[in-house]
Amino acid sequence: MSVEPENLILKYGAPGSSYPKDTGGPEAGFYRSWKPYLIKEGFYHFLLGLESYLEFQKKLSHLAEEPVGVSLALSCMVEVNVAGGILLQSTDLLEQNQSLAKKIAETKKRSLDSLWKGFREGTPIRIYAVGVSEPGWEGKLRKLSSNLENGLLSGTKSFITNGGEADVIFWVTKSGSENPVYLVQRQKDGIPAIRENQIQEESFPTDFTHLVSHIKLTLCEFPITETDLVLENYGKLGMELRLKELLSLVSLLIGKTKKISLEDRTVAKEREKLIEWRDSFLSSCNGFPDSEFLLSGFPYPTEGLLSALAEHWKVTSPQELKSIDPDYQLFVWEDSFTNYLIQKKKRNL
Question: Which domain of life is it from (predicted)?
Fold first, then answer.
């Protein structure tokens, strides 16, 4: 009989603290403190082609069984799904592109290889975030206003998860009918790479997963070079990455509800049904899940478990679970793009 691995938070955490025993602390940053242990325990193996997406999801669930683990699982899943998804796409396209001049291709390959080290090596720690959403964009890429003119990038990103700790932000822009993605280096060798007159930054503390860093960031004529272009068109990839985030929230919910399931049979039954659905759905996925595959299972069936939780806590609806624990807002909040995906799925039925 297989033995379940020890929870990473219990294994490496300092008693009474949200941080690990031997590194970090608030001054180093929450996700940055934990990332060496995530690397050590194989949380980025999926990106490196060493395990399936299902195995990654199982790790997220196990991590989220501890209160601090929900915040850590959120930081990890966003970096893997979104930043990692962009890197995977960029690497694939570079390998397929035979028209690039040899010098440019070699420079881009070195840049991508350097970025991949952030998921393989614990020293130095590298954190990646992605800037997509903007004020008034309503979930529509065509409404983005960030743009590059004469090698200078200007624009505002309204909500960047992991942004406060990020060394590099993948910045989605607008250029005609396409959405190029550029690398914005916030930290280079531990030194801020952005001058004060080029940046305005505002942190966004949230009631839910309060240890996760969220920021609003405005750039004004930030210099960009040809090698900073990491992806020529974010386009359809955006749907795939958002669906991966939503599927990962299923795994976080499975983890978060484990302890409650031990005392409530209805919660236990609905939780087991959700686990069976996730495992069955992802077991049919060979390689990296694409948007078509992910959309086939959407919207993901969390309603039963959320309703059982509402009954357990004697609240009127799942939306009220956030009054019991702010982290539950993760599982009931719908943004405009999620609503768009729901409508798209209905049209395809």
Answer: Bacteria
- Using a 10 angstrom Cβ sphere, with 0-12 exposed, 13-18 middle and 19 or more buried, the burial of residue 189 is exposed
* Report for 112-126, 203-217, 255-269, 333-347: range of highest mean pLDDT: 255-269
One-letter amino acid for residue 320 of the chain: E
Distance CA 255, CA 169 (A): 29
* pLDDT tens digits, one per residue of 49-105: 999 999 999 999 999 999 999 999 999 999 999 999 999 999 888 777 766 666 666
Contact by Cβ (8 Å): 212, 75: yes
The tens digit of pLDDT for each residue in 137-157 reads 988 999 999 999 999 999 999
How does DSSP classify residue 79? Answer: I
DSSP string, 122-171: -SS---EEEE---TT-TT-GGG---EEETTEEEEEEEEEETGGG-SEEEE
Q: Examine residue 20 and say whether the peptide bond preceding it is cis (omega within 30 degrees of 0).
A: no
What ranges do the domains of the chain cover? 237-348
Both structure tokens of 166: 């990020």
CA–CA separation, 84 vs 113, rounded Å? Answer: 13
Q: Could you tell me which of 255, 278, 263 has the C-alpha nearest to residue 331?
A: 255
